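Entry
Fold in token form

___
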Amino acid sequence: MANIDIRIILIPLAVAFGIGVLLGPMIIPTLQRLKFGQSIREEGPEAHLKKAGTPTMGGTIILMSVVLTALPFSSFILLNNSKPIVNSDLFFLLFATLGYGIIGFLDDYIKVVMKRSLGLTASQKLLGQLFIGIILFWVLIEVRVLRIGTEGGISKFIFNVDIPGTDWALQLNWLYLPLLLIMMIGASNAVNLTDGLDGLLAGTAAVAYGAYAIIGMVQSNYTVAIFAISVVGALLGFLVFNAHPAKVFMGDTGSLALGGGLAALAVITKTELLLPLIGGVFVVEALSVMLQVLSFKTRGKRIFRMSPLHHHFELTGWSEWRVVTTFWCVGLFLAGVGIYLEVFLR
């Protein structure tokens, strides 16, 4: 950190925020004219029915802000007599984010424009997510992983997963592929489930990405720091229009992209096992859905009044804003614990 101007980290935050604030008034009216309005589930809370018709697919604002910020700030890091270095980490992070964003965009487009309420089928989504995950694994092998020869005609690689708070690591090698796929699919779907209240996902995701910006700085990986802080800025800019009462929703375009990018950050920073902690709010939201379904199918009873968990608190009488700010605070605490384990117990 001593040799790097802190403005290299802070300026992307301000730039991404500014771009998001500028794009909002241009994109939101366009979404309204195209009638890209959100449909509300009939089984959801009654209070949400008034949100029907609010423009969705606002994740395009976030993605455009991130690309327009991260590319110029991260593509070329000037080191060693101002020689530009092509950055493979940036490709990995953007490919994961935009790849999952495209899946989300297709899902939103089918729902909103083609009037098919379910969007992409579960199998179509899964195939797309698996395809992107496999490409990312190939990228890791080509540019980041130590190749140690072949055995029986099969290449051998070293894939390690660090144990948080220790100097130990698990050597997974080819088993890292299923771990990567579980991380990418699990994170994107868990983040997607959290997108149910005005500002809820934008705020919790900003906290999680902010944690990775700090981890990137501590690891001296400024591509990670710049990318993550660019997402934070984009989310804060989006939050100007997404805070209660929301003028736009991010849709699957934004939520799937954010989940994919978060998992990619965990891979690049070697904090795979910290991801469930830093993204703890998303994990709890996903678990609440799984437990609800399991309980209802096995016992015929519900654990929560409604899942995901944020709807349960709504139905107990909490205001939408109280639920959102409480989840933000929980996310901040969990992210702080994750930073502590990575930074101070190493």
